[in-house]
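user: can you give me the structure for this one chain? tokens are fine.
assistant: on it. calling the predictor now.
[tool input]
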Amino acid sequence: MQICAPPEDVGGIPGFMEFLKSMADPNHADYKTMQKWAQSQWYRNFDIGLINKRLENILRV
């Protein structure tokens, strides 16, 4: 999983570390809760393909 930036209000570095731990493990007790919360924050994993597509569209002249 590649992460581009922490979501807002994640709780600083300790909160972000816990967030990453729970998001990476579907068996983690907080996995479903974190998934829902992340969606409410418009959080998504870094997608290099999507970024490259957007850059291609922007840079077309």
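assistant: here you go. Residues 12-59 form one domain. The chain has one domain: 12-59.
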